[in-house]
Amino acid sequence: MKIVLQYFVISCLFSFSLLAKQQYAVILQYHRFDDERYPSTNISMKLFTQQIEYLIQYNYNILPLSKVVRFLRENRSLPDKTVVITIDDAYKTVYTKAYPLLKKHHLPYTVFVNTMPIEHRSKNYLSWDEMREMGKHGAEFANHSYSHPYLVRKRFDMTQEIQKAQEKLEKELGDRVCSEPKMFAYPFGEYDKKLMDLVAKLGYVGIAQNSGPISNKSNFMALTRFPMSGGYGVMDQFVVKINTLPLPLQSVENEDTLVDESNNPPLLTLTLQQPLKAFQCFNANGQKLAMQWLSDTKVTIQSAQPLLYPRNHYTCTAPAEDGRWYWYSHLWVVLK
């Protein structure tokens, strides 16, 4: 009996150690808070507060994005239930609405800043002094370009857009700017192979806006995040998303994102690490996509209709254990 009990205790401890360590995380993305003028990028403070209180009540580990990315790139384990809070564009309501709640709970978060409106002292954006204060209470800051342009669609000096913003951030905010690693969030969430290659050459990690958890196997030039604005963060969806697992992928073909008349609707080919039951894919409107299985682990996915300007995505999911979901999303930038 004693031997059986010892075996049971050892087994439980071993199982707990496996559950307590992971190499994946969920990143949440926000923009505006309690600003109903812009519903597609806004979340109410009532809902945001519910989300934060849920994370705290159920013992989620909220970590800075820079630390999570660093650990994953180095193949180091993260705590179980790791979640990251990110905020894009540095709107004023980050300071007036979200910051007091985040400060109250001593939570870390990452703000991606496009610096031009800050330099112009726009009343709709944070000031450098406000960001310095936030930096003393959990905030870190990263690059979201200088002027927030459509880098993929128009002829911009992409290097200048990135480097000019980084220089200003470092000058004004010092060591509260992410440097290990440097991170760049794509304006409008749009990127293509050319831009990803440039971001890598300049020494940045690329941050996207299409949904899904990240892992040590992710493409670090396009780390995915779950948008929480525009109705995507209601509590039932929120709970599902913070518990998602990375889709076990062996490879992704057609990794470029550009779609024009020659390849619309685009074809995506995924190879899974193992067969998955009830695997299915949808476009941004929730319409189910056609799939053709080339083997029990290799599948092609394609919309029945051409994708509409300006953006779309193919999102693929499958049920995992304990009511959780595997999740993967591929961005498409639709050109005119």
Automatic annotation (TrEMBL):
<dbReference type="GO" id="GO:0005576">
    <property type="term" value="C:extracellular region"/>
</dbReference>
<dbReference type="InterPro" id="IPR011330">
    <property type="entry name" value="Glyco_hydro/deAcase_b/a-brl"/>
</dbReference>
<dbReference type="InterPro" id="IPR002509">
    <property type="entry name" value="NODB_dom"/>
</dbReference>
<dbReference type="GO" id="GO:0016810">
    <property type="term" value="F:hydrolase activity, acting on carbon-nitrogen (but not peptide) bonds"/>
</dbReference>
<dbReference type="InterPro" id="IPR051398">
    <property type="entry name" value="Polysacch_Deacetylase"/>
</dbReference>
<keyword id="KW-0732">Signal</keyword>
<dbReference type="Pfam" id="PF01522">
    <property type="entry name" value="Polysacc_deac_1"/>
</dbReference>
<dbReference type="GO" id="GO:0005975">
    <property type="term" value="P:carbohydrate metabolic process"/>
</dbReference>
<feature type="domain" description="NodB homology">
    <location>
        <begin position="81"/>
        <end position="336"/>
    </location>
</feature>
<protein>
    <submittedName>
        <fullName>Polysaccharide deacetylase</fullName>
    </submittedName>
</protein>
